[in-house]
Design a protein that fits this description.
Blueprint: H1 8-14, H2 16-20, E1 27-28, H3 34-44, E2 56-61, H4 64-73, E3 85-92, H5 101-121, E4 125-130, H6 135-145, E5 151-162
Antiparallel strand pairs: 1-5, 2-3, 3-5, 4-5
Helix pairs in contact: 3-5, 4-6
Length: about 180
Amino acid sequence: MNGSLIPVAEAREKLILVFGRRSIRAYAPGEIPEATLQLLLEAAMAAPSAAGKDPWHFVIVRQPDRLRQLAAALPHGQMLAQASVGIIVCGDLSVAHDRQISYLLQDCSAAIENLLIAAHAAGLGACWLGIHPRPDRMTAVHKLLALPADVVPVCGISLGIPAEQREPRTRYNPACVHRETW
């Protein structure tokens, strides 16, 4: 590109990965190669981070028993029991910008969205499962994964070969757009 604006139709075509990323909760049997998983993690860690602190950590869970335990610990995480991989995205509060939880959450959320889009680009299904700020979920995940005290479990991601297809969409709502002032 030489600094010229891309026509909207062409930009829309490129954004199909964003519009096509949907929560997939049903998985077919199959392994996810380590190289694919590393690619997803590289995409996650390409996210912006406040003051370049990169407080994120990713706990990869492949063992079926541990996936079932995570599914039991997360009220809406039953799909983890059938997932090929579970990824628990955590943030290290001792590393976060100014040791602020809000920066940690923003940084991890940017990494999570990158990971979800990368999973879709790789032909995988994924679903974001909230952990923070629910104390019961955070405590259960802390215990199950032996997380250090300063590490905050932000979310879980179930990942697998999709057994369902969902249509691309946008959730654009003009009522949520304000110009110049509210």
